[in-house]
Amino acid sequence: MKGLRPVVSIIIPTYKDWYRLALCLDRLNQQSWPKENFEVIVINNDPDEVAPDFLQDYLAENVTLLDEAKSGSYAARNTGIRHATGDIFGFTDSDCLPDKDWIAAAVDLFEKESCDRIGGNIEIFYEKEGRPTNAEIYEKVFAFKQAETVQASGVCVTGNMFSKRYVFDTVGLFNENLFSGGDYEWGKRAADQGFTIAYGEHVRIFHPARRNMDELLKKAKRVGGGTAHHLHGSKKRAIVDYLKTFEPSTYTFHMLRSYGKELTLYQKIKVFLLRRYIKHSMNLEKLKVVFGKTANRQ
Question: Is residue 160 located within the same domain as residue 49?
Answer without folding.
Answer: yes
